[in-house]
Amino acid sequence: MNTMRKAKITETTFYPVSISEKGLIGFAACLFDDKLSLSSISVYTTPSRDIRLLFPEKTLINGKKLNVFYPINKETYESIRQAVKSKIEELAEKVKKNEEATLLR
User: Fold this and answer.
1) Structure confidence by residue, pLDDT tens digits, 35-94
2) d(CA 105, CA 94)
3) Which of 7, 9, 20, 70 is the one with CA 20 to 30 A from 82?
4) Would you give the distance in Å from CA 101 to the centre of its chain?
5) What burial letters (b/e) apply to 3-30, b meaning 16+ CB within 10 Å?
6) Coil vs helix vs strand at 10
């Protein structure tokens, strides 16, 4: 029997943008097992001040939309969401420290 191990997110990147009316705050990319990169993941805020992710789609000439990639279960979605959330929190902490250092000069 062939058993597959769970893929590990080995790197996460977040690219912030100016916040849109619809709550878009940036785009994320995740590297799995240092072998597969999934990028262009849209990151939105929620009314509860959390984040939600939207995965890329391709629109055909006839208007039909195809998913480029997406998590097939809630566990995988939550793993990606948590990795992105942690990266955003890490970047926010760096910005805060830089602002504090600037004020102390």
Assistant:
1) 999 999 999 999 999 999 999 999 999 999 999 999 999 999 999 999 999 999 999 998
2) 17
3) 20
4) 28
5) eeeeeebeebbbeeeeeeeeeebbbbbb
6) strand
DSSP string, 33-78: TTTEEEEEEEEEE-TTS-EEEE--EEE-TTS-EEES---SSHHHHH
According to DSSP, residue 6 is labeled P
Q: Confirm if 27 and 40 have CB atoms less than 8 A apart.
A: yes
d(CA 52, CA 73): 15
Of residues 4 and 68, more confidently modeled: 68
Longest dimension (CA), the chain: 63
Give, for 32, the enclosing helix (H) or strand (E): strand 24-32
